[in-house]
Structures are given as structure tokens and as C-alpha cells.
Design brief:
Layout: H1 2-17, E1 27-32, E2 35-39, E3 53-56, H2 70-79, E4 85-89, H3 92-100, E5 103-104, H4 109-114, E6 118-121, H5 127-137, E7 140-143, E8 147-152, H6 155-180
Parallel strand pairs: 6-7
Antiparallel strand pairs: 1-2, 1-4, 2-3, 4-8, 5-6, 7-8
Helix pairs in contact: 1-6, 2-5, 3-6
Bound molecules: zinc ion.
Zinc ion (ZN) binds at residues 25-26, 88, 90, 146-147.
Length: 182
């Protein structure tokens, strides 16, 4: 599990250093056998240790309390067979745009190329199903007023989609500011 831990630690540090999560915000998981390994409830992604990871699966009794988003991660893995890892973050420009519109359409080259259109799904009772359905077709989805959920072949790839999204959202934000001033 040490290389698994290293992946969580490196991606968690990058998420925190890039301002994509607050001190205790966000969560991550990787698919593991018939279950998953997920960060624990309240863990600090910038400072993860072995005791912050919990394996959840058939016949396993979780040793510590998993992230409150466990059910969302399980729904995503069940719906998107290509998902091997999930990163949930709070990219602030993307969150602001999610409150202002129905979807995010990157206009910079990288965002257009890697993400295309990024759906925004509402919070509420049907969140798990809506999120899982959207992530079947898209690499990253934003929950309105909350944050992003990215799926990848690895935590690193899910981090990539998260940082591409936030860069695109910031460019959209700057573009708006420019057009308001001209
Ligand atoms: Zn969150």
C-alpha cells in the first residue's frame, strides 16, 4: 500500500498547494478490487498519512470513518467502468461559474481539447445518480456551488482534469472582466 499512499500524498499536496482544496476540503479514492481506497472523513489532503486512508469493500469492516462522499464515489465507479481513480476538489472559479450557469464551456485550447463541455449538476437527493450518469460521458463534472468530481485512469489524471478545469474557469472569468471593461 506504500506506493498507493505515495500517490495520494503527492496528488493531495498538489491539490492543496494549487489552492484547489481548502485545508480540510476535498477527497480522493482509487478503485481497489471490488471496492475502493478513500481518504477518511476530515483528513487534510495536503498532509495525508497512512492512517488517513481507508479501504471499503465487500466483507471489509472500515477501520476509520470514510469520507462523507463515499456513496458518490461508489456510484461513480459502478457507472463508469473506465474510472480507476476519483478526485473531488473545490476549484473556486469553477464553483463561481457553476452558480452562474448550466454548464461550463472552456474557451482556451487546453480546456476545449481535454474537457469539451463540463456539465453542472444540482445538489439534492438525486445527486449520486446525476453525477455518476454525467461522469459516464465526461471526465469531470461540477456540482453546483460545491466542487468538481473528476475520474481518471489514475489520481494523477484526475488531478490533471481538475487543474485544467480551474485554469479554463479562471480564463472565462478574466474574459468576462475584460468584456465588462470595454
Ligand atoms: Zn466538497
Amino acid at each position: 500500500m506504500s506506493s498507493v499512499l505515495e500517490g495520494f500524498q503527492q496528488v493531495g499536496r498538489d491539490l492543496y498547494a494549487a489552492g484547489l482544496v481548502s485545508s480540510h476540503g476535498g477527497n480522493m479514492s482509487v478503485r481497489q478490487g471490488g471496492g475502493l481506497i478513500i481518504t477518511s472523513h476530515g483528513s487534510r489532503l495536503g498532509h495525508l498519512a497512512q492512517g488517513d486512508l481507508v479501504e471499503v469493500g465487500p466483507g471489509l469492516e472500515p477501520s476509520i470513518e470514510p469520507s462523507m462522499d463515499l456513496a458518490l464515489h461508489q456510484a461513480i465507479y459502478a457507472a463508469a467502468s473506465e474510472a480507476a481513480a476519483i478526485v473531488h476538489a473545490h476549484p473556486r472559479h469553477a464553483i463561481a461559474l457553476s452558480l452562474a450557469g448550466e454548464e461550463i464551456r472552456p474557451q482556451d485550447l487546453e480546456g476545449e481539447h481535454y474537457l469539451g463541455v463540463v456539465p453542472v449538476v444540482p445538489r439534492g437527493e438525486k445527486l449520486a445518480q446525476a453525477l455518476a450518469d454525467a461522469l459516464r460521458r465526461h471526465r469531470i463534472v461540477v456540482v453546483a456551488g460545491h466542487g468538481s468530481y473528476a475520474r481518471g485512469e489514475s489520481l494523477w489524471q484526475a488531478l490533471q482534469w481538475t487543474s485544467v478545469l480551474e485554469e479554463s474557469a479562471e480564463v472565462l472569468w478574466l474574459l468576462r472582466a475584460l468584456s465588462e471593461n470595454t
